[in-house]
Each structure stands twice: as C-alpha cells, then as structure tokens.
Amino acid sequence: xxxxxxxxxxxxxxxxxxxxxxxxxxxxxxxxxxxxxxxxxxxxxxxxxxxxxxxxxxxxxxxxxxxxxxxxxxxxxxxxxxxxxxxxxxxxxxxxxxxxxxxxxxxxxxxxxxxxxxxxxxxxxxxxxxxxxxxxxxxxxxx
Length: 143
What we know:
The protein is α+β, with helices and mostly antiparallel strands. It has 4 helices and 7 strands. It has a 4-stranded antiparallel beta sheet. A 3-stranded antiparallel beta sheet has the order 5-6-7, with no helix packed on it. Helix 1 runs antiparallel to helix 3. The protein starts with 6 loop residues before the first strand and ends with a helix.
C-alpha cells in the first residue's frame, strides 16, 4: 500500500486514443474489403509469420495507447498496461517535465525520469490532474 491519496488516469489523451482506434478500424476495414483477394493468394510460411507478427505489434501498440494508466502516489509513480513499472520518488535522480499546453492534444505531456539503477524512463501524463500532482510532488506545492 502507498501512503496518502493517489490519482489514477489514462496515460494518453483522448485524441491519441481516438486516432489509434480509427487506425485499427481502418486497417480492419481494409483487410475485410480485400479478404477475397487475400484468401486466394498463396502465402509462404515467412509471409504468414510476417503478417501475424505485424498484427500482434499493431494490436499491442493499440492496447498500450488505449489501456495504459498512470498512477501518481505520494511515494511513487506507476505506469503500465500489461505490466506496471513503479518508480519510488526516493529513487528519482533527475526529472524533466515535457509539456506544451497549446499542443497537449497533439503531443502528450510526459515525464522523463532518470531513476537510480533503472536508467531513463518516459511516463506519459495525459490527464491535467496527474500533471498537477506530479508538479506538486517534484516542485512542491504552489503558493
């Protein structure tokens, strides 16, 4: 358990999730429309493997964008989807907050963290309350 209140929110903005859904639906529609031709082709084992690997990569990327969550605790920050990375604030050696408010719909705000023994990690922070909590944790409460 973590001390104090925590905030959990989607890692990516709604515009990213909508765009990812449109791309996946567009690919699925294109495959459906050409299914007759695709089924008539003679596929080598290498081509089948390539198509399956490509499909898995697209679906994993989609799942990551749509399903990942960032949780800001008083003593740590977590980010993940299938597996969660947890970084204690006490292990953080360096922090950069990359946020352009006018472009937040296009460029997701992110926290670049250099953690002791873990290297450099990128944590997306799409939700405004998450950004506020991180600013408070890193820079202290604002006056």
